[in-house]
User: What shape does this take?
Amino acid sequence: MAAIYQAACSACDYTSLKQSDGYLAVILDRPSPLTHAHPEDRRVVILAHPVESMILSEMGVSFRTACHEGRLLYVREVMCRSCGTMYEIRRLGAGGSALGGRGWLSILAIAMLVGALVGQQQNSIIFGLIAGCLASLALSAIIERIVCRSIRRRYPRRVAEFDRGPGCPKCGGQEYAGFRSGWRKLVCPGCGRRSVRIRYVAKS
Assistant: This one.
């Protein structure tokens, strides 16, 4: 379940909209009539949690297709530390679906082999399990990063058009706070004081 956050100022009546700290979206070639289309650009369809699969089905797209065609957009909601503006950092990428079933099975097979070798060498099942899990995580991260770079090189125009940030669109500031940094006071876009905190309010 996705966590929902809201920014509120203790010095004035400013409160932000309730929203998640980030989401996945799919880029289409034409504006979409779907209700989950982004209000600023209806070619970007938000995969709202927990109905991502339903939205993809309505568009006739799968996660794997979106990954391979360079249509998967990772979006992070942040707040500028300089002026308090809330904005999105967007990056074209590729998720684990790009690996496909064979890719994940290959990673699992290699991780099991590593775990078996370590377990045999150390004469310990526990060490073998730990080594297998670490190998699986490391391989997944490395391969996903390679796939992501490959996708970005393949679709440079889409990267140039849809990537956004990390600079603030209002003041150009490069420092920002994610929604989970609730203990830090931030600048209020309403009164200008450093009196805003981002707090968790619900789950979607």
The longest strand covers residues 194-203. The helical segments are 52-59, 63-68, 100-122, 125-154, 156-162.
